[in-house]
Structures are given as structure tokens and as C-alpha cells.
Q: What sequence folds into this?
């Protein structure tokens, strides 16, 4: 069946289902009046009730060779149902005003700092090092105590990875006790990680949020749950992490996780991801707290550290070093 026959069959199915599928007139008469012309189907709005416009899955049919479909990392779709994730708008101007990295700052000092920090993380994720690291594309951002800048760093890291040519990024608000990623991005709370773990009927595509930042997707923390530690330690979480690690091989998953010392959730997650980035605030976090935090993530194969708010001659916000 050629492309035109496939399109005609699809249009007939949509009409039988109750959709109104307009076919605009072409200059000089109907499509059939144009020698060699092919009917054009406009790209309509999202599917609705009977009588509404046709679903967005109907593509324009042009008089051109068929092109193989390319799956975009920005569209999370369930093959069996056709459902896809909701799109939201990140308040990029607000993030920029508050000092976050945004796509328009590709040559800023913060952008350069994040390039230096992310490079070894991405090398590990791509398997470019001698050490084989399971789930190396799962990166957990933590701190010893609250208020050290881990969420600020996690958002900046995700933004920086989204600027990569060959990679996309999923930012997971895994701080299920005090989620703040969506609020900082100017987005209303919605279902997310906790809901997927508790309800087997939910799929990732039901709760992921596509954004107006190319190649950046969000996964909210979801509905608060008193058994959050147990859910993160469950078989459902293990299955979810496997899916996240393998669903798109060119995607990096960044988890903004709870602080290590006052919670147990981060310890459970750290034992299941490939890399951990420890954010340490200069002049605030004590040596004892850092030592305790490192002990809590010792099961993770790779632990790197970022020294936040460090005072240097160049006034850089971050320092960077490998954990020992």
C-alpha cells in the first residue's frame, strides 16, 4: 500500500470514528483536478470528542518521497494507546532573573563552568572510560544538608546537558519530601514519580512533562506519600530505573534528590544509580557532615563533588573535584 492509499484509509477510519477531517480546496479546483497532485491534510489540533478536529497523529501528505519516521526524545508516547505526555512552559525569563542557566546564555561564565562539570559525567554515561558503570546515565544530585544548592545545581546541569548536540535530558524531581523543581520553573504541581510507583496502571508517558526548552523533559515528584522510602526501595522502582536507563539510549536522567543526612530516601536511590554528584556549600557544610554524607552513598560506583559558592579570584560560583 503506497503513501496515498495509507492516507486515504486513515481518513476513512477517522470519519467513521466521528471526526471532521477537512480537505481544503486547491487553487484551480479540487485535488483531483491538479495533474499529479496529492490531497493535503492539514495538521489539526489535539484529538477531542466526536465531531472535533482530527488527532494530531494525522500528518500532512505531500507529493514527496516517504521519509522514515524519527522518534523525538521530546515526545513520550505509549505505542499501544497513542497517549503522550503533556507539554508545559518553563518560565525561562524568571529562571534567568534568578541566576539559573538558560539556553540564551550559551557563552556565559556559568555555562562554561557547567561544561567543565558535566564533561566527566557524560564521559561515564557514554561508556568512554575504562570502568564499566551500570546505569551510568542515571545521575543523582544530593547534598549532606538542606540549603546547599543541590536543586539550583540540578536544574543548571539539566539545562547544560540539554544544550548537547547528541543528548537529551530528563530532570526528575526526586526530592519527594520537599519538591521544588516545578515551582522554580514556574510550573504547577502534577502527578509524577510517586504516583507511577504506587499505581501500576500509570506509565511514564502519563506523567512526564515536555517543555519549551528543546531536549529537556521533566518528571515531577508527584503526590506526597508517607511510604516514600519504601516505594523508592520497591521492585516497581527497580523496574522504573531500568526503563529510564534504557528507554532512550541518548538520554541522561538527572535526579534532584533529598539531602542525605536528615532523610533516608536519597540513600536508597544512591544504591541504584550509576553516578552521584555531591553538592557541598563552601564555608557552611562541616567536615563531619561531608564524611557522613559520603558514607551514605558508598554503594554508588561513582561519586563526584561540586563545591558551591566557593570564593575564587575569578568569582566563580562552583569549584569541582573528584571525591576520594
A:
Amino acid at each position: 500500500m503506497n503513501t496515498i492509499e495509507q492516507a486515504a484509509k486513515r481518513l476513512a477510519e477517522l470519519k467513521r470514528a466521528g471526526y471532521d477531517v477537512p480537505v481544503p480546496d486547491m487553487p484551480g479546483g479540487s485535488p483531483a483536478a491538479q495533474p499529479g497532485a496529492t490531497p493535503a491534510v492539514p495538521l489539526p489540533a489535539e484529538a477531542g470528542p466526536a465531531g472535533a478536529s482530527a488527532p494530531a497523529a494525522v500528518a500532512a501528505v505531500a507529493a514527496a518521497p516517504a521519509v522514515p519516521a524519527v522518534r523525538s526524545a521530546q515526545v513520550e508516547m505509549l505505542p499501544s494507546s497513542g497517549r503522550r505526555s503533556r507539554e508545559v512552559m518553563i518560565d525561562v525569563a524568571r529562571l534567568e532573573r534568578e541566576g539559573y542557566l538558560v539556553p540564551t546564555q550559551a557563552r556565559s561564565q556559568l555555562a562554561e563552568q557547567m561544561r567543565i562539570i558535566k564533561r566527566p559525567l557524560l564521559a561515564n554515561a557514554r561508556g568512554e572510560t575504562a570502568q564499566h558503570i551500570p546505569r551510568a546515565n542515571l545521575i543523582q544530585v544530593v547534598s549532606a544538608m538542606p540549603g546547599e544548592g543541590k536543586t539550583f545545581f540540578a536544574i543548571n546541569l539539566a539545562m547544560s546537558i540539554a544544550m548537547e548536540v547528541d543528548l537529551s535530558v530528563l530532570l526528575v524531581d526526586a526530592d519527594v519530601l520537599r519538591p521544588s523543581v516545578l515551582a522554580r520553573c514556574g510550573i504547577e504541581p502534577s502527578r509524577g514519580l510517586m504516583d507511577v510507583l504506587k499505581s501500576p496502571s500509570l506509565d511514564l508517558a502519563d506523567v512526564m512533562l515536555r517543555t519549551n526548552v528543546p531536549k529537556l523533559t521533566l518528571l515531577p515528584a508527584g503526590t506526597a506519600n508517607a511510604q516514600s522510602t519504601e516505594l523508592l526501595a520497591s521492585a516497581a522502582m527497580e523496574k522504573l530505573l531500568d526503563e529510564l536507563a534504557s528507554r532512550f539510549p541518548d538520554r541522561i536522567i538527572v535526579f534532584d534528590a533529598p539531602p542525605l543526612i536528615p532523610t533516608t530516601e536519597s540513600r536508597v536511590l544512591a544504591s541504584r544509580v550509576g553516578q552521584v554528584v555531591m553538592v557541598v556549600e563552601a564555608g557552611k557544610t562541616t567536615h563531619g557532615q561531608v564524611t557522613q554524607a559520603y558514607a551514605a552513598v558508598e554503594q554508588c560506583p561513582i561519586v563526584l563533588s561540586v563545591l558551591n559558592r566557593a570564593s575564587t579570584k575569578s568569582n566563580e560560583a562552583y569549584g569541582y573535584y573528584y571525591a576520594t
